[in-house]
């Protein structure tokens, strides 16, 4: 028992110390796991075998395919055409372009699955449209960032794939189905805020609805819609696995952008592969180190300690779920999403299952929660991209984000305490 206690102190102490010293989170996780194994005299070969077993998971191949697909879409006109479809659908409403911002992120998220890709590709277009039409710049950039979080919930989402691999035995199809309504709920919450602010500040309305514009927008958006059907439809209908559908959609985007539209050059193609390789390399290194850290956590029985500790505080389901959400929100401010998923899933999943929450609902709740962390300093990736794309200071953008994040928290509360939002479609389709 004393030996276990020593291991816990070494693991937690070395982890916190290296974080304070500013060591990269990947190396922090990996080195703290190695130090603990050396102190506990655990055979490191066992840990490495666990890492290789996790990293060899076939489903993880979907992650680079989704990333590369988003790169191809950004090179061609697929992203721009989605923005035009959103303008036709909701631009005529009060605060039309603000609504467009929310809806085109919902569409783009349903194809790329990346918040960063959303802000990077659609951001410059929609921010300029909004500011030229009289919208405040800080509001426009902040809305672009918050609406982009829909991309990590609405399928396809490589973060949901990573959660499914980490949790083990959770259907990716069920997570995809559960992500749809959850992403729509988040979009509706942001739309309510847009409507209120637009009325209060007298923001302009876009062009009136026209069936001719609607048909034209649908026509030019068909390739993007078809890509969405390939990615999600293939999985839900059982024709392809998540990895196969991601690869098929990636090939489709390449053919459409480079061979049919002829928008890309060899330089663009090289850049797309280079950026994807750099991103997936860092993600996989982080995932490997987080796997080692998670294995040591389990070996030291820390998940059981946390479970017993939380249930010693309260057995009330509502209070417990609120505590879990607060923990995740705080961690999301300081750590990368992938590392939190790998570390906290083995700890928190048994707790929520004991409370009667389905792993699919917990997965959506966790990813949405950590999506809010993408908007918070000091490590908020979407926040930094938004500052760069919108040419705005972090202080000004953070201030504009706060009221919008309050509506995101409202969506998180609904997903947490209304199971039907995440479970109705999976139950209807027979995936759970």
Topology diagram in text:
Elements: H1 2-21, H2 25-40, H3 44-55, H4 62-75, H5 78-90, H6 96-112, H7 115-132, H8 137-148, H9 158-167, H10 172-201, H11 211-220, H12 222-236, H13 242-260, H14 266-299, H15 302-313, H16 317-334, H17 337-354, H18 359-373, H19 381-390, H20 394-417, H21 419-429
Helix pairs in contact: 1-2, 2-14, 3-14, 4-7, 4-9, 4-13, 4-14, 5-6, 5-11, 6-7, 6-8, 6-10, 7-8, 7-19, 8-19, 8-20, 9-17, 9-18, 10-18, 10-20, 10-21, 12-13, 14-17, 15-17, 16-17, 16-18, 17-18, 18-20, 20-21
Structure write-up:
With 432 residues, the chain is mainly α. The chain has one domain (43-429). 81% of the residues lie in helices and 0% in strands. The protein is built from 21 helices and no strands. It has helices at 2-21, 25-40, 44-55, 62-75, 78-90, 96-112, 115-132, 137-148, 158-167, 172-201, 211-220, 222-236, 242-260, 266-299, 302-313, 317-334, 337-354, 359-373, 381-390, 394-417, 419-429. Helix 3 crosses helix 14 and helix 9 (158-167) packs across helix 18 (359-373). 51% of the residues are buried. The mean pLDDT is 81.
Strand content: under 5%
Largest sheet report: none
Q: Number of helical segments?
A: 21
Low-confidence stretches: none
The best one-word shape is globular
What is the total tally of β strands?
0
Radius of gyration: 22 Å
Element order: H for helix, E for strand: HHHHHHHHHHHHHHHHHHHHH
Q: How far from one another are the termini?
A: 40 Å
